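From the pipeline queue, job 12 of 40. The input is one protein chain; the requested action is below.

Action: predict structure.
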Amino acid sequence: MPYPDLYDEPARSRRRPWWVKALLVVFLLSMLAAGALAGVIWYISQDLPSLNSVTAYQPSLVSRVYSDDRQIVGQFFVERRILTPLSDIPQSLIHAVIAVEDARFFEHPGLDVIGIARAGWMNLRRGGKVEGASTITQQLARALLLSPERTYIRKLKELFLAYKIETVLTKEQILETYLNQIYFGQGAYGVSAAAQTYFGKDISKVTVPEAALLAGLPKSPNNYSPYKSPERAKKRQEHVLTRMAEAGFLTLKERDEAAAQLLTFRHGMPAQTAPYFMEYIRQQLMAKYGESAVYKGGLDIFTTLNVRMQTAAEQALRSGLRQLDKRQGWRGPLRTEDISKLSVPAPSPSEAPLKKGDTMEGVVTKVGKDHVMVQAGSIQGRLFFDDMAWAKRRLRGRDLAKDVAVVPTLKGLLKPGDVVELAVKSVDHDAISFELDQTPVVEGALVALDPRTGAIRAMVGGYDFSRSEFNRTVLARRQPGSAFKPIIYATAFNAGLSPATVVLDTPVVYEQEDPDKTWKPENYGKKFHGMTTLRSALTHSHNLATVRLLDKIGVKSVVDFSKTVGIMSPLNHDLSLALGSSSMTLLELASAYGVFANQGFRLDPYAVSVVQDQSGQILGQNLFTPRQVISTETAYLITNVLEDVIQRGTGQQAKSLARPIAGKTGTTNDYTDAWFMGYTPNFVAGVWVGFDDIRSLGETESGAHAALPIWIDFMREALLQLPEVPFEIPENIVFVNVDAATGLLAADHGEQGTVEIFLKGTEPTQSAPPRTDSTRFYQIDQGVDGVGELPAAIQP
C-alpha cells in the first residue's frame, strides 16, 4: 500500500488546527492596528504646537493703577487676571479645584485611564454625558495650546500634549498655571481676579464655602453664575463640597457646616474712579510702553491722584454746573407719556433705599393746588411748587438772551404725562418729596496740582465722562480772559515795576493794520478809574490799565515770560493779549500759577510717579527737578497782589475759606468762558466753565459767579488734607508807606498813606507832591504811554 506524499500541501492544510488560523489572523490585525496607531501618532506628533507658552508661561495680566496712597483705583486689561503664586492660594481652594476637576491629579501622568473608564461607565449607565474625564493637565493644554473645536484629532492632540506637559513641568507648576489661567466668568481670569469679582476680597481671605463656589465655576461659568442662577450655583457648590469630603479634604461635619453658610456676593463693579484722569494716563502709558505692555503686561502704575480730592472735585464741579444750568432756565419736560397706559412696577427687594440727592426720571400723574404728584418707577412722591420755582425761567432755545420767557404761574408749568428729572429732597417714612432737576448742557473742568512737585492731585475733564470723553483740562483751548492778567503784571514786576507803579485807566483807541479800523478796549461796566496803581488795576481787573501796561512793557516780553512759566500754546502778538484773547488749556494756566505759588520754581505737571513690571522692576519714574524760572521776589510781588484780589477784589467769596489764598477771576466777551485760578503756598487749582460750542453762559455769569463757587466748594474739602502755611516773604522785599495815588513816599504830614511792598532798591525815595486837580489827568493822558509818567513812578 503506497504511503501518502509528505509534501502534499493540501493534506497539510487540512490537518492545521483552527486556533492556529485564528491566532494568525489576530496577529495580522494587531500588526495592522499597531501600524495604523503608529501612523496616527506620527501624524499628530508632526503638528503639535510648541510647549513654550506653557514652560515660559506669560499670561495676559491686569495692569493696576494706584493712587498717591497706593490704593488700587483702576485697571487696564484684556483679560482681568492677577498672577498669583501657588503658595499664596489657600489650600481650601486648591483642594476644592482638585476634588471637583481631577481627584487623581497627583497620581496620573497627564491622562487618567481610571478616570476615563469611570466616566465612560457613568455616562453609559445614565444614558448620556454626565461626567467628564479631562484632567487638569488636559484642560491646561486645551486652554493654552489648542483651539476650542471639538474633534477627535483635537482630543488626541490634547492627550499627547498633556503627557508632554507632565514631562517638563512639576505637578505644582501645572496647578499654579491652571489656577491663574482658567476662566471663572464675569470677566475674571484666574483665582485672584475671581475672588475680587465675586466676593470683593483678596484671594488669601477666601473661606471654604467661597472656595467651593469658585471651584465649581470653570466647568460652566454662565450656568453656575450666582448672579444669573443662584439655585444652580448653590447645588454646584454643594457638589464640590461633597467631592472634597470624598477626597478626604473635609470631614462630613465640615462639609455640612460649609454648605450651611450664607455667602455674600459683590454686586456690580464699583464705578470707575477719576475716568478723565485714567484716560489721560492711559494715553501717556500707551505712547511710552505700547499697547501690549499696558493691557497685558501686569504693570503696577503709581500715580499722583488723591482720591479724596478727586471725589471733592467731581462733586463740586457737578453741583456747580447743575446750579448754573438752573439759573439759565428750564428746558421743559423730557417727553410726554399717556398716563392711562402707565404701568407701575412692583417694588423690588433688591432696590437700594432712596437717599437725599438721588436723581431719577418721573412722570407727573396729578396737578394739585400747591404741588404735583409724580411716579418714579415704583415710587410715588410729591413735587411742591416751591421746589420747582427756578423753572419759571423757561428756556425755549439755545440763545440765553432771546429764547427765555418767564412763566407767570407755576401751576400751569407741568401737566399729567410730563416726564421730568427729579432729585430726592427728603424721605420721611413712606412720604417722598422731590425737587425738579435738570441735567446740565453746560460743561466745565477742574484741575488741581501740588506746586512744589507738579503732581496732579485731581482732574475732572467734564460733567460726565460717559456723555463726553473729551478732557477739557488738557485738550480744550479757551480764552482765559482776565485770568491771564497776572502773567502780564508779573512780567512788569520782573522788569522792575512795582505794585505801586501808577497807570492810567482811561479810554484809549489803537490803530490797526487796516487804516480804516481801530481797536477801542473797554472796562467791565464801561467805567473808568483814572490814575491807578498796578495793584489796584489787577485787584479790580481794569482792562484799560492792563492794555496800557502791556503797551508799555511790550507784547514780546509777555510772550517770552509766558513760555518761561509754562504757557506753551501760541499767543497773539498784539495788545488784545492784555484781555486774555489767546486760547490755552486749563492745565497750562494752572501750572503757570503754580510757579507763583512755588516762589518762582517751575515743575512740569505729571500724573504718573512710577511704573513697575510684574516682577517689581522699575520701568519709568518721574524724578521732578525744580527749575527757578523767575525770581522769588517777582513771584511774591504778584502773589501779594493776587491776595488782594481775594481780600477786596473780584474773588472776595474765597475769604470764607480763611486761608492765605491768592487768585484771579477770568471772564471773556459775551460771558462765553468763566475761570477762576487760585492757590495757597502748597496747592493750586483752576476751574473753567463754558459751552463746548462757544456761546454765552448768560448775562452776569462771570468767573466770580460761575467758576469761583465751584473752586471754593472743592478747596473747602481739599484743604482739609493740607496744613495752613503763609506765603513766605523773601528777604529782599521791603515794606514802605506810600501815597496810594502816586506811589511815592507818603508825606510826613497830611493824609495817612498805605503800606506797599517793593523789591529792595526799587522803593521810592521822593515824597508825594501836593494833590493836583483833575485836569492833571488830561495832561498825563497826552503822554506817550500813560504808565509811570508821574515823577514818582518807578521806571523799569
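Job complete. Confidence is low (pLDDT under 50) at residues 1-7, 789-796.
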